[in-house]
Amino acid sequence: MFKEPIIVIHGGAGNIPDNRDQPKFDGMLTAIRKAHSVYTDTLSIIDTCQAAVESMEDNEAFNAGRGSVLNLKGEIEMEALIMEGKNMNAGSVTGVRNIAHPIALARKVMDNTPHVFLMGQSANEFATKMKFETVSDDYLMTDAAKIALENFLKMGGSPVTTEIGHGGVGTVGAIGMNVDGHMISCTSTGGITGKMAGRVGDTPVPGAGGYCDNAVGTVSTTGHGDSIMRYCLAQRIMTNLEQGVEPNLAVQNECEKLSTRIGGSAGAIAISKEGTIGIGFSSEKMAWAYLEKGMIHYGIKKGQHFTIGL
Ligand code: ASP
User: Is 260 annotated as catalytic?
Assistant: First the structure.
């Protein structure tokens, strides 16, 4: 038995312009407070992590749900993964459109189908069957995302880094552990600006965008998805945790190794089965926050660590 639940979130890694720091801080504080109230009401760590992600999906400071970045055709195709550590159940969606909460759809895939992963139009048909409301492109598509794509095209861009000043939003993730040591991983994204239509990133792929096993720990990643997928970043962090590597070191080392071996940059959050938190990134910045003893801890730049009361 642990004394209190652990909740850790991230709001994306990359070269985030400074004027985006505060909106991300505000969005993460809101998400942590929402998560805390859901945990108090339900004692469900899965509902808690999902609520934190949904809160950030609603907030255009992040690249998930409303605020998602645009593909080369100027469209939004979203992805999400949810995983629980008791029996390694997982649900994923990719290429979904016109819903507010892809993480909620991933949860439905996990809870209401015999499968792990649904894609594109069929995922949307499943959303309709599950009575998800449709939201318009206008709701999901922000000016920042449109400008980001324009800039990307003007610069003859190639989508190898995230948050390259192209809108400065970021993928979101929430991981948690309840007092019994049961763990959850949730991650949701719009992908990367200027991705090809149909591109699948790391986020919905177990072992890349996230992983969760009560016998080891839980992880959610962010950053350049094509690199993260090739490196199996979440799984490599899990292997470190299994070997007893201190979680901060495990996360930081593996993100740096990804950058050295593959290029691209990444960040991740983790909790070990002992309840120790790990936060690290090889990108210039990563927005992160966690709740401990009634205080919210948060930061975005290397070495930055603020605290504020719940
Ligand atoms: N990993 C995401 C992707 O490449 C982007 C991000 O984390 O910001 O799809």
Answer: no
Kindly give the distance from the C-alpha atom of residue 62 to the centroid of ligand 1, in angstroms, as a whole number: 11
- Is ligand 1 within 6 A of the CB of residue 222? yes
Closest of 183, 191, 204, 172 to residue 28, by C-alpha: 172
Q: Domains in the chain and their CATH numbers? A: 6-14+22-86+139-309 (3.60.20.30)
Whether the model clears a pTM of 0.90, i.e. scores above it, the answer is yes
d(CA 104, CA 91): 10
- Cα separation, 109 vs 130, in Å, equals 10
**Separation of alpha carbons 98 and 193, rounded Å:** 18
Say yes or no to pLDDT of 162 above 80: no
48, 142, 162, 171: the active-site residue: 171
Task: Report the distance separating Cα 165 and Cα 133, nearest Å.
Answer: 32
Q: Which residue has the tokens 């992983």?
A: 211
